[in-house]
Design a protein that fits this description.
With 357 residues, this protein is of the alpha/beta class. The chain is 41% helix and 20% strand. It folds into 2 domains: 1-104 and 260-357, 3-Layer(aba) Sandwich (Isopropylmalate Dehydrogenase), CATH 3.40.718.10; 119-256, Isopropylmalate Dehydrogenase. It binds 3-isopropylmalic acid (IPM) and manganese (II) ion (MN). 3-isopropylmalic acid binds next to helix 4.
Length: 357
Amino acid sequence: MNAGIVLLPGDGIGPEVIDEAERVLMTVADRFGHSFTLTRYPIGGIAIDSFGTALPEETLGACAASDAVLLGAVGGPKWDDPSAAVRPEQGLLRIRREMGLFANLRPITVFPQLAGASPLRPEIMTGVDILFVRELTGGIYFGEQRHAPDPSGEIAHSTMTYTTGEIKRIVRVAAEAARTRRKHVTSVDKANVLEVSRLWRRTAGALMGSEYPDLDYNVVLVDAMAMHLISRPAAFDVVVTGNLFGDILTDLGSMMTGSLGMLPSASLGNGGPGLFEPIHGSAPDIAGQDRANPLATILAAAMLLRHGLDLPNEASAIETAVSRVLDAGIRTADIATDGEKPVVGTNAMASAVIGEI
Ligand code: IPM
Ligand code: MN
């Protein structure tokens, strides 16, 4: 296969972990006889510094014309002023919107080798394997926003909107995924308070009943879901929810495993190129020190091969290699427990994975 992959290193540890994922992708290309062309473009803070915008048109154009996009991370203290007109996060929001990436898949899986890294008791974590399906181009992150003077000082509005069309298409993604898994879908909303959640619940329920009668389906309020995720996470298979709730619950979910540095995610649209990235952020405090865990980005590259290029065997080769490296006790600092010293750096970890591939 000939594939054009756009790399968006971004800020902080982004460039380091992308460099390592590139080495892994080139190894896979070599081993399986593919030709991948990897090209870097700026996004986030680094793009603001050079171009005055977090998502230059050239970057967007290259992503749209590619076969798949691999992103590092964006943001950092340098661009953190919440009142700034131009912010790194705008690059992410805009690329999702422009590329129509409405479905964000965030698998929360426990690597048995790292079971001890979770802040939750091992018996609670046993069997945890959740696929979060977060709606990514609608809801309150994209609704109308206003800010105005008010007799008391100021007033601000952010609006949460969903159309039945947006709800149906994300619920279908969740349901299709559930059919390949344990056949259970949980929809999370706040229907006891929000009108938009009542529409979500009605629409999701009707669709699941008519199109997916073969699947188990239940609904949970978002506040209760936060509780259930800590007390009985193994009870969930596929969880579908809106943009804001999904943002919050997936951070909770990722920390549950104790290894944020291990988790990849995929953002998919309607057949166009997908965007693949680690769940973690730009970690500016450890940037440039060869301390970041590259495995989340390497596993995002595996998701890119599976979901973006339809190369499941190549994806499995990476995942198996990562598992073997963990079996061998090789750890970056973030996933090492006390007995596991010394730890390796970013580059050595990726080299270990490459050795296994
Ligand atoms: C994420 C991030 C983004 C989001 C931010 C950086 C805009 O937190 O991907 O979860 O909220 O979607
Ligand atoms: Mn987030």
